Amino acid sequence: MVDTLVVVPTFNERGSLASLIGRLRQTVTGADVLIVDDSSPDGTGELADSLAAADSAITVLHRPKKEGLGRAYLAGFQHALDSGYRFIVEIDADGSHDPADLSAMLVLAQDGADLVLGSRWIPGGAVLNWPWPRRMISRAGNSYARKVLASQIRDLTSGFRVFRSDALAAVDFTSVASQGYCFQIELAWLFERAGLVVTEHPITFIERSVGRSKMHAGIVVEALARVTMWGMFSRRRKPSRRDNGSADG
Fold it and tell me: Is residue 248 in some structural domain?
């Protein structure tokens, strides 16, 4: 039985989806793929269906309306758990994450990491083709969240991840209510607070060349507000068993 499911949330990603799926199927041939489409008006859902028709390892979950990245991932996670997959992967549909990194990330999960983050902000990690304001926002936002949340994770907003299913099932992931980057922060912090093993693996993030970024000011405002609230009102944190061998502390 296939033990890995790659969850790919989509909304208006017709221009980049086929390329990403092709790279995934070439580099992680033993994994299944679940495309979660939020009724994209550009025909992404129809393209996903055609990809699935040509490849039995691809499944499509059509959602009736756009409800945000977080809700799409939660639906994908539940599908993976219900189907008995051992590992669950998050990856962006826009091609900014290189599927070639997945093999090393899956090895870390197989070796005991509960959550493996593809990190831009540890030694060996990099970002290509971002303008300096976007780079500054990401670095400053991660630094602020780490400080406020007393976190040891260097790239809390990374959207490239591998979860052990048993660890995901052990935390109350359905309680995560945030969207966008804040969803990623909240979920990683949930693992860290639970004392689960979180490991960061360096990746090179490449800004999308097709389509439009979903980044907007509202996402940043939501993240700042929620992180500040969590830092002010969170209960006393449990010590983390995080393996930080690949991070710079």
Answer: no
